Amino acid sequence: MKKQPDAEAVITSIRAPYRWLIRPERAPLIEKAKYDAFRTELPFLYGILIAIACGLALTHVRYAPSWLAIYLPLPLGAACVVRMVYWLRTTGWRRPATSSGNPVRIRLGLGAVLAFGFACWALALYPYGDALAKSNVAVGVFGAAVGCAFCLVYMRARPVVVTIVALAPFAPLILFSLLNGEYASTAIAIDLVLMAGALAFVFRGYYARLAQLIRSQQRLARRREWAARLAEENFRLANVDALTLLPNRQRFFLDLDALLQARSGDRSAFAVGLLEVDGLKPLDHLFGREFRDHVLKEVGRRLSLLANPDVIIARAGDRTFGLIVRGNVMDSQLRQMGTMIRFHLEQPYNVSEKLARLSVSVGFAVYPEAGAIAQHLYERAEFALQHAKTVRRGDTVVFEQGHEKAIRRESEIEHHLRRADLEKELSVHFQPIFDVSSKGIVAFEALARWKSPVLGVIPPTDFVAVAERTHLIHALTGVLLRKTLDAASAWPAQIRVSFNLSARDLSSPGAIDTIIGIVLASGIAAHRINFEVTETALINDIDRAGEALLALKRTGAHIYLDDFGTGYSNLNYIHRLPLDVVKIDRSFIADIAEQESARIVVQTIVDLCHRLSLDCIAEGVETASQVNVLVRAGCSVMQGYFFGRPIGGSDVVDSFLSNGFLNEFSGHHS
Ligand code: C2E
Ligand code: CA
Ligand code: CA
């Protein structure tokens, strides 16, 4: 234990001059490559030394004393044999565990010392023997000097050290031969000096080039590694949604394609799902974009917990997420999965001490029944999702054959709507809006009718949706509004007209300008016109919708909120818009005569409207008892089959606006 510091001190004291003599090689890879090259060359070198030694011993045994010719080189030869066997047996690269000293260097240093020893021994033989024997000594010194230089160059000894050590043994040789007048030997020695010098130079170049080659290989490897990292990052960016960290839309379709390709042989089922999150837009408006993004991030986190090797979940759109489900894809299992997803996503979101709730709809399409290519599967999942949103609110819908028929009908409607002569085929029916307190019609709602020469009469619920999807809606709105205002111009001035606008009309500033243009050109006072808009139309882009409504309102027209209660139903939020009247959806009216709970809901809506200084209209009133309940609840303006079904434009005056009708009707409901 006590020896430790002494040994270290010795090592450091040796290291200083050693460091000057031998420059360290910093790159282990270069050292390894050089070592590998060297390892195979060194045994030959020892072999040559041994052969030279044997030759010298044989040529000089006759002239020199045997201790010098035979016994002295014996340990040297034995050491060379041991080293040769050692180098022949070394395999692989074993780096020393400790950094103090480099065993490879030490082993090579040994080689250099042995070679130098040989040179000295050979020199000692020089005075003996004849001219030929002396030449042999010169050759022996040359061999030893070359071996020595070879080792030193490998060890990165300074060139001056290599030169001195390799050439030094020749100096006495040249000196002796000159002194003895053996000029031929001098010439041989000088030639050999030059050759030894040249060989040392060649070794240096060889190792330098090797090091250079390795360095450039290392650089290349580093660059390759960097490029691979970059490609990996690119791949990540191109395949991951930055906000939710789920796979993105592109990844979703790549996975879907890959799955379809794998399934083309066995056709075992899997499902493509789409889920849409509702309620983000209001968050954006109430609490800002950042809050909404945080909620979306949390949606992503919750969804990622539901993903597993059989369930891939990706972000397919702003508020839609795509699913690929393998394994259990029976309808009941998919519906169960939809319920589970909805349960997780509909739990409250608590972000920055604010609470948010979302609603979720899910649609699935199963391969191969619903489609054999990605696009079909996606479209059908989308259809199932729409169905879940509109028909079975909040439910999970799995695409089925009945939907297939609906899709076919939609494309049929689209096909004929695109070719329709709108001016000729579209017409407007009117339904009265009745004020029970004044016992009179206050307005008519315009309801679009399309009679296709090929398909016959198509209900507006069917063709308006198609027109919205295909952007034909603007053309439709224009034609319908002109016809509506044209018909209304024949009515008494106190009767207003209600016209339904689509979400698309509100989201396009150009469309609003056109609508205002039509109003101004109609000759009808704009204050007689009501524009009906639905909540969903407003919520999709409330800023733009707000601007559109303001522009309409500036003409003097009124704004009605249609189908209240079927959409997001946040009056506090909607009240920020310039609304005049709320139309309570007919689904709330249907049961008010029979059910106390339905009555309470309607009463609450009516009270809320009054508190917000909005008038209300009850839609879908079909019976006298409903009328009575509504009157008691404080809602006196109504619309429904009880007061009159929608009828053709030209019949309005005859049927509703003649005194006879009004008198008869006033008696009818009271
Ligand atoms: P809406 O605006 O809610 O129109 C009222 C719908 O309820 C009309 O159906 C009407 O016929 C029906 N209705 C009226 N009273 C009763 C009743 O007492 N009981 C029942 N069960 N139904 C009643 P319609 O004409 O089929 O229109 C359906 C929907 O199509 C409308 O709903 C509206 O959203 C849309 N629509 C109609 N015309 C147009 C239009 O010109 N432009 C746009 N963008 N949409 C329109
Ligand atoms: Ca309406
Ligand atoms: Ca309505």
UniProtKB/TrEMBL annotation:
InterPro entries: Cyclic-di-GMP_PDE-like, EAL_dom, EAL_sf, GGDEF_dom, Nucleotide_cyclase, Rev_trsase/Diguanyl_cyclase. The chain crosses the membrane at residues 42-61, 67-88, 108-129, 135-153, 160-179, 185-207. The keyword Signal does not apply. NCBIfam families: GGDEF. Keywords: Membrane, Transmembrane, Transmembrane helix. Residues 410-660 form the EAL domain. It comes from the Bacteria. GO terms for molecular function: cyclic-guanylate-specific phosphodiesterase activity. It comes from Paraburkholderia tagetis. Pfam families: EAL (PF00563), GGDEF (PF00990). This is EAL domain-containing protein. Coiled coil: none annotated. Residues 268-401 form the GGDEF domain.
